[in-house]
C-alpha cells in the first residue's frame, strides 16, 4: 500500500494533502481529487437527505465528443461523483458494497470478453440488457442504492452499438469502479 501511495505522490501536481493540482489541459474539464467521503453512520456522515441523483448533465449527448472519443468527464468527474454517490451511507441505509459492485462489473466485462472472441454485438446485447433486471432485483432487496440503479439504467439506454458499449460504457464503468475502490475500502 505504501508503494502505491508513493507512486500517487509522484503523480504530476500531487501534494501531500492528497489533492492534485487543478491545472488541466485546455480541452479538459477534469477537476482535482477530492477527499474520500465518510462511509460510516457516525457523526459527520452523509445522511439520506444528502443523496442526490446522477451528476448534472450526465450522459447528455452520449459517451463521445465531437471527435468520436469518450468524453473526459465520463472517465474522471462523473465517474468520481457516481462512485462517491453509490457508496454513501446514512439513516440506516447502506451504500453498495465493493463485492456487489464488482459482481455487476464482472458481468459487463464477461460480455466484453465474449466480443473479444468474435461474438457480434447483437449476440452479446441480451446479456448486457439483462443487467437492468439484475440491478432492479438488487435494488428491491436494498443491496444497491437507487442511484446505482439510475446509473445502470441511464447507461443501458445509451448503449446502441459495439462502440458505445466497449469504448463508452465499459471504460466509464471501469473508472467508476476504480474511484469507488479509492473512496471505499471494504
Briefly characterize the structure.
By secondary structure, the chain is mostly helical. It is 52% helix and 0% strand.
For the termini, the CA-CA separation is 15 Å
Q: Helices and strands: which structural class?
A: mainly alpha
Count all strands and give the number. Answer: 0
Instruction: Report mean pLDDT, rounded to a whole number.
Output: 79
| Overall body shape | globular
Tell me what portion of residues adopts beta-strand conformation.
Answer: under 5%
**Which range best describes the helical content: under 10%, 10-25%, 25-40%, 40-55%, 55-70% or over 70%?**
40-55%
Largest sheet: none
Give the topology string: H per helix, E per strand: HHHHHHHH
- Helix count, per DSSP? 8
Rg calc? 17 Å
- State the low-pLDDT regions, or none: 7-51
As an assembly, this protein is single chain
Explain this structure to me?
This protein is mainly α. It has a domain at 75-186. The protein has 8 helices and no strands.
What does the secondary structure layout of this molecule look like, with pairings?
Blueprint: H1 2-10, H2 72-75, H3 77-86, H4 98-116, H5 121-129, H6 131-140, H7 146-158, H8 162-183
Helix pairs in contact: 3-8, 4-5, 4-8, 6-7
